[in-house]
From TrEMBL:
Keyword list, A-Z: ATP-binding, Kinase, Membrane, Nucleotide-binding, Receptor, Serine/threonine-protein kinase, Signal, Transferase, Transmembrane, Transmembrane helix
Entry-linked InterPro entries: Kinase-like_dom_sf, Prot_kinase_dom, Ser-Thr/Tyr_kinase_cat_dom, Ser/Thr_kinase_AS, TGFB_receptor
A GO molecular-function annotation: ATP binding
Record EC number: 2.7.11.30
Ranges where the Protein kinase domain occurs: 1-155
Family under the similarity heading: Belongs to the protein kinase superfamily. TKL Ser/Thr protein kinase family. TGFB receptor subfamily.
Leading EC class: transferase
Membrane topology: Single-pass type I membrane protein
GO terms for cellular component: BMP receptor complex
Protein name: receptor protein serine/threonine kinase
Amino acid sequence: MTSRNSSTQLWLITHYHDYGSLYDYLQRNTVDPESCLQLAVSIICGLVHLHVEIFGTQGKPAIAHRDLKSRNILVKSNKQCCIADLGLAVIHCQNGDYLDIGNNPRVGTKRYMAPELLDETIRTDSFESYKQTDVWAYGLVVWEICRRTIINGES
């Protein structure tokens, strides 16, 4: 935690990932079908982990990302992905049905927005709605991975 001009900044230090973001990785590389599936499965596993509330002393609230995109996914050295940049995330706790949208009503990147976000018909009081928009964005990320997949030497 640092203080600058009497405003507090919180910093989260994480591992460094040589491959960078999935966006950068896909710009520099093509993938085979097996790697395509490995990337896609590792992302959905991370998204499921975010979306599920875990109870107990090592628990966590359920989280909807709200800005899932290839630039917010990091590729680790073992070619597994991890989801990054939770700055727009929504937090949900089942006990008391608590939904914390935070002070930032802004949503993510237009290219990855679900139709209900674009036409502003999303149910803002429903955590399920936010999870569904994450799944929409995930589908677009998978499309990006598939576009860089080489099958039998052809893209």
